[in-house]
Amino acid sequence: IQSTEDMIKLLENVKGLRKKVIGKSVLYRIDFKKNELYDSYEFVLSEKNLLEKLVYYYSEQIEKEYGDGENESPKEFKVKPRLEILFSNYFVPAKIQETEFTEKSIILASNTNKVTLLEKYKLFQVKDYRQIKK
Predict the structure, then answer these.
(1) How far apart are CA 106 and CA 111, in angstroms?
(2) What does pTM read for this prediction?
(3) Average pLDDT for consecutive 10-residue bins of the chain (134 residues)?
């Protein structure tokens, strides 16, 4: 899914939504109305709401296998491909202290309304959209 429009288009084709608890994880399954792309889609979330697994069940396709002989007609096979992606070894993000994002570590305070960056941020550009009262 590339964009919100793609998501909306996908959801317009939904036939049903199911939820199943598997141990401490939760599986969600989306079944689609008959179409040329997906039959269904599953994703599993851990107890910490981390993505564990994605499964795409593609719509049924007919594959043809051609024999070696000229007069031999191709054999047709119905296939239902699927793609399964497993996620593991998540790293817990480092703890971020609130002071890391304070303005004092980026700008110099002054009595004027001008924003002045500290030396280590001098190559950055500040877009100041405040309405300065005169």
Answers:
(1) 16
(2) 0.55
(3) 75 90 95 85 92 90 76 80 89 71 72 77 75 57
- Distance between CA atoms of residues 112 and 84, nearest Å: 58
- Reported residue count of the chain is 134
* Cβ–Cβ under 8 Å, residues 62 and 77: yes
Q: Over the range 57-93, which residues count as b (16 or more CB within 10 Å of their CB) and which as e?
A: bbeeeeeeeeeeeeeeeeeeeeeeeeeeeeeeeeeee
- DSSP readout, the chain? --SHHHHHHHHHTEEEEEEEEETTEEEEEEEE-S-SSEEEEEEEE-TTS-EEEEEEEEPPEEEEE--SSTTPPPEEEEE--EEEEE-----PPPP--GGGG-GGGTEE--SSS--EE-GGGTTS----------
Separation CA 63–CA 76 (nearest Å):
6
Q: What is the DSSP string of 58-77?
A: EPPEEEEE--SSTTPPPEEE
CA distance 58 to 33: 12
